[in-house]
Amino acid sequence: MKIRHLNYTFPRAKQPFFTDLSFDLPEHQVNFLIGQNGAGKTALADILLGLRPFKGALTPSLTSLYLNQQLPMLTSIRVSDVAMLILGIETGQRHLTLETLATVVDGPTLAFLTPLWSKHYRELSGGQRKLVQLLLFLQVDRELVVLDEPTAMIEREHAAILFAVMRSHPERTYLMITHDVRDLAAFPTYQVLWLADHQIKASVDRTAFEAASPDSPFMRAFQAI
Ligand SMILES: Nc1ncnc2c1ncn2[C@@H]1O[C@H](COP(=O)(O)OP(=O)(O)OP(=O)(O)O)[C@@H](O)[C@H]1O
């Protein structure tokens, strides 16, 4: 995906936040977006998803899915109800049992959901609830999937399940906002975009990232976020 000459001004703001921003989001792989709090990562994600009016060109136009930081949650319902809510419309099924679930979700998701299937949300930990929703939404097929800090507040063991599901859809283009350098190692190829001072200061692939000196400005920035 090519982003060219992107200009964006927040409503009622006097100065533009992004001016003439151009960068590439290689398709069919994971792109990590890093930057300090307030750098504009969520604003940029919103723009790429067409949720904020902007000037500039995004090509090609991709179907998209946005897993934002505040996933909604009805605490009184069961995991099976949440699956029905998220997948019912997508699959056109009126009833979703564990047997039918097996035909519409991938293996890691089925393995994670099976022991939780009849539990109420309130019986789950915060991390488990988050992962239930992330995994179910990731069953919905879209070309561009944006995840805003999906690994915040979840254990590494659970993050590994999320990564397995992401890897099982290599045809997708992912943009993942993260503050956790450990997330990168889960993917064979990736690009890291560093957002600072209202610009993409660096875009680095896995080889360059692994070769980067700990003293480089880019690596220092990652350690600071
Ligand atoms: N309506 C607005 N007008 C002007 N500035 C705004 C407006 N809304 C947000 N901002 C500013 O835009 C900047 C970018 O916010 P954004 O939420 O995109 O950052 P972020 O990198 O996602 O941060 P975090 O890591 O904390 O989630 C922030 O400094 C914020 O104060």
TrEMBL record:
Pfam families with a match to the protein in the record: ABC_tran
Q: Which domain of life is it from?
A: Bacteria
Q: Which UniProt keywords apply?
A: ATP-binding, Nucleotide-binding
Which Gene Ontology molecular function entries are recorded, alphabetically?
Answer: ATP binding
| Start and end residues of each ABC transporter domain | 3-222
The positions making up the signal sequence are none
User: Could you tell me which PANTHER family the record lists for this protein?
Assistant: ABC TRANSPORTER ATP-BINDING PROTEIN SCO2324-RELATED (PTHR24220:SF687), IMPORT ATP-BINDING PROTEIN (PTHR24220)
The identity of this protein, by name, is ATP-binding cassette domain-containing protein
